[in-house]
Structures are given as C-alpha cells and as structure tokens.
Design a protein that fits this description.
Blueprint: H1 12-25, H2 38-41, E1 47-54, H3 68-76, E2 78-84, H4 90-99, H5 103-106, H6 115-118, H7 125-131, E3 135-140, E4 191-194, H8 202-216, E5 222-231, E6 235-238, H9 239-242, H10 287-317, E7 324-330, E8 335-336, E9 342-343, H11 349-352, E10 353-354, E11 356-359, E12 368-375, H12 379-386, H13 404-408, E13 418-424, E14 434-440, E15 444-451, E16 457-464, H14 482-495
Parallel strand pairs: 1-5, 1-7, 2-12, 3-5, 4-6
Antiparallel strand pairs: 2-10, 2-11, 7-11, 8-9, 13-14, 14-15, 15-16
Length: 499
C-alpha cells in the first residue's frame, strides 16, 4: 500500500493522524520512512538471487534445447512469455534494467557512456537493497563489461565486483594457461570446442564463486546478482555441451536469409560475428559456418544452463528457497541464424523479446505462464515491492510497473505496450544519426526509424503478430492498417516523452 506524502511536511496534525491510523490498521510502518533497516531487524527478509545472462534469445524453449535447469525454474516460478528489453544492446539495456529508467530518459543508447557520468546520484536496484541493510554482491557481468571509464559500478555493491571486467574474446581456453582471462591475445575464432572442465571458462568460475558466496551469506540478508557471460560470442563451451546436439539435426529456422521488404536499417549483417577471425568480414557466410555457429550457440546455452543449476541446487541445499526471490532474465534478444543474422541490435521480435522467469516463495500459482506484456524496467519496482522497501524518496522516478498483480492473476495486464530503441549506424556510439524505436502491443509491432537531426521519419515497419509471434511481413503500406499505425505512433511518442 502506498500513501502520498505530498503536503505532510506542512501539516503536522495530518501526519500524526495518519500515523495513528496506520498503527490501528497494522499497515507496515516503513511506508512513512521509518528506520530503513527495520524489516531486517524484525526478520522480515526476502533475499534476491538476480541471474542475468547475455544474448539469450527467447526461442530456447521453442527450439526445445537442452536446458533442464532453466525449465525446472520455469516450473517452480512464473514465466513471462511476452517480456521485452528496452534496448537490444548490452549497456543501454542493463543500465535501464538496473536504474528502472528507459534509455531515452537515461540518454543512453550505446555501449560507451556510463550512466554515472550522466546521472551521478541515481540509485541502482542493488544499491537500494544495500541501503536497506542487505549485503549486495555482484559476480560476473551485471553492468556493461568493457570500454567505459568506470569498471562496473562500485556504489552498487557491498564489496568489489568479481569477474565483471574484460572483453568477451578474452574468455578463451589456452592450454597451459587455464582458469584465467587472457588480456594479451588478439580476438580469435568465434567458436571453440575443447574437452575441458566448466571452470576453463568464466561462467564455470562465476558459478563456483556464487556458490561459495551463498554459503557465506546463509545467515545474512542478501541481494546476489550473478551475471553469466554466455551465450554471447565467442561460442565456446566445454565439448560435452557440444555433444548434446547433432549438427545435422539442428532446429529449423523461420527465415534463413534477410527479407527484402524490410528496411536495411533493421539488419546488422552479422556485424559482431564478422569481427572474429573465422567469419568472413564481408560477403556471404557459408552454410557450414552458419551451422557451426548455431551449434556453438546452442552448446553455450546448455553450458550456461548447467551453471544456473549448480547455483539453485546450492540455494536448496542451504534451505534458502523459502527466503529468496529468484529472477532469471537475458539483457535482450538475439539472432542465432534467424534472418541469416548472428547478433543483436535489431528491433525485430526476436531481437527485443527476452526470457524472463520470476520465482518467489509466496507465488500462489507456481509453474504458471503469463502472456501479458511486460518490460524489463518492471523488475525494479517489482523487487522492491516484494521486499517491502519504501522508495517514496528515491532520487529517480521509476518508469516501470510492479509485476505483482500478474503474480496474483497471470491474465492481468499492467500495461498495454512495450517500447525498445536502438541507434544507427552500428558502432557510431554517441555520434549516431538515426534512432530506431519499436512499440509492441498485444497484436502488432510498429518500428520507426527517425533522423536525429531533423526528427523526420526515414523508414517504417508494421507487423501483425497475432497468429505468429515471429512472422516478418511488413504491412506498413496496407491502407487497412493505417488506424493501427496512427494509434501506435501516438502511444510511442507519448511513451518517449523525455522527463
């Protein structure tokens, strides 16, 4: 329950009356800003295990990949089947998730800027928990991992971050030099298959560190964020995970090549994959190479799944499941061969739609699925509400809505639309000249590419996804759909109004 505090400072009598009514009605007192550690002192603690992965598409379930541990969590929690990232790129998405703000309000659309450089006093999700007396620990890639002036975000944590800073290509197995990041090697191949233990790669070491941390935190209220680096390129995983899949029998793709009717601005030409030594810099990528890349991506997903299982098993062994909320999400979607692309950075459904699972000890319908539209900015208000943390005086206004009404009824809606943004040209960082904004309602996706200089619309796309979530047929020119287009444009402009 939230009660507005506007005018209370000027009306002492009203404040005392409200406090009296609060006590009579047994409303939790921290709503009025009492001791921030009161919940912990009274033992009313809900720990958080926040598991974020990198570049995982939502199709892992559709393709029936080998992910028994994620599937087990889905069966115990709630699957949000229509969850969307606010940016299909690491830094803007992660900054948005962890501050509860849309990229346009943060003014962050690319990987280079650190949000602290623009908003030095903004509070992050783990920082809010830390301020409440929780031990907040970050292991792995939570904030962006490379190319910024600030490594991670020290203000968010109770102790220095671990395994959080490196280039992805430095997570590589070198015989004789196992179990370390290799900052002295050039970027190599996009795939690696070696018969090595899980700990030969970062995610194996991150899982072990998370397990040891849980053991040390058993008696301590905690917010533990675990950021896995996979299945991001390079697709390297121990051989046993490659062996799960027969390369000649990989799941079929909906679209094997680019679609001619789509704006060129939406495609990326496998830009990131082409930066690795075994993928051609230009021209077609051979079918054999595409199969190898897909095989490696699926192996990396199964490798990732095994690490998640280790951590949740330890949480159970420590009897912490009934005291801990678990969140599992990817920072954005991904093309693993769909449309002939390998990479993120797109406004398609597959580029913006993400896996999201939330487990809570108080969940009344475990194993349920919601197809209501939600956004990753909704996680911030959800977790603080579950923990009963007062955020009335938070330095920023949160852009998301709590998911708790959907926990009570999976069919309930907390919003009608989801919005995502990505700039062009690729790699232009702060010098981008075009911004692509996408809005998704229950049935349609509308994409608008705009000039930053004069605000003119360069290209538009409209997709009817009512029957097939991943169908790509641009019907923007269909006169019968113009009422839909105008309505989505209005909603998009309203949502993107800068504060």
């Amino acid at each position: 329950m939230k009660i507005s505090t506007i005018g209370l400072r000027d009306n002492v009598f009203l404040l005392r009356s409200l406090l009296f009514i609060t006590v009579i009605l047994f409303i939790k007192p921290n709503i009025f800003g009492q001791d921030s550690h009161e919940n912990i002192q009274e033992g009313n603690v809900n720990n958080v295990l926040f598991i974020m992965v990198d570049d995982l598409f939502n199709n892992f379930n559709v393709y029936d990949l080998r992910t028994p541990n994620i599937n087990k969590l889905i069966n115990r929690g709630m699957l949000f089947d229509r969850a969307y990232a606010q940016a299909p790129l690491c830094n803007p998405s992660r900054s948005s998730i962890l501050t509860g703000k849309r990229p346009n309000n943060l003014r962050i659309w690319s990987n280079a800027p650190h949000f602290r450089g623009i908003h030095p006093r903004i509070k992050t999700l783990p920082e809010v928990f830390k301020d409440q007396g929780y031990t907040a620990i970050g292991i792995g890639k939570i904030f962006h991992n490379w190319g910024q002036a600030l490594m991670g975000d020290p203000k968010s944590w109770s102790r220095p971050e671990m395994y959080h800073w490196a280039a992805h290509s430095q997570d590589w197995y070198i015989p004789g030099r196992p179990f370390e990041i290799h900052g002295d090697i050039p970027k190599g191949a996009a795939v690696q298959m070696e018969d090595v233990p899980d700990e030969a790669y970062l995610d194996g070491r991150i899982a072990n560190e998370a397990i040891n941390t849980l053991r040390n935190l058993r008696e301590t209220p905690f917010f533990l964020a675990v950021g896995f680096w996979k299945p991001h390129l390079p697709y390297n995983a121990p051989k046993k995970y490659w062996d799960y899949y027969d390369r000649s029998k990989l799941p079929s793709l909906s679209y094997t090549d680019e679609i001619n009717s789509i704006s060129d601005w939406n495609y990326i030409d496998s830009n990131e994959a082409r930066s690795y030594s075994d993928v051609p810099k230009n021209g077609p990528i051979s079918d054999n190479k595409k199969l190898e890349l897909r095989h490696g991506y699926y192996a990396a997903i199964s490798f990732l799944d095994a690490q998640i299982g280790k951590i949740i098993d330890e949480l159970e062994n420590l009897d912490l499941m009934d005291k801990t909320t678990i969140v599992f999400l990817s920072d954005h979607g991904y093309h693993a061969g769909e449309h002939g692309q390998f990479g993120k950075w797109t406004n398609f459904e597959i580029g913006t739609r993400v896996p999201l699972v939330v487990y809570s000890p108080n969940l009344t319908k475990p194993g349920s699925k919601s197809s209501s539209i939600v956004e990753l900015i909704d996680l911030f208000p959800t977790l603080v509400e579950i923990a009963d943390i007062d955020i009335e005086n938070l330095s920023q206004k949160l852009d998301g809505n709590s998911l708790l009404p959907i926990f009570e009824n999976p069919k309930r809606e907390i919003k009608k639309i989801a919005v995502s943004q990505i700039p062009r040209p690729l790699g232009s960082e702060a010098n981008f000249s075009i911004i692509g904004s996408s809005i998704r309602d229950k049935d349609y996706r509308y994409v608008q590419w705009k000039s930053v200089n004069n605000d003119s619309i360069i290209a538009e796309e409209l997709y009817n996804l009512k029957q097939n979530l991943f169908k790509v047929d641009n019907i923007i020119s269909d006169k019968r759909e113009q009422r839909i287009v105008q309505g989505l444009k209005r909603s998009l402009n309203e949502t993107l109004k800068v504060e």
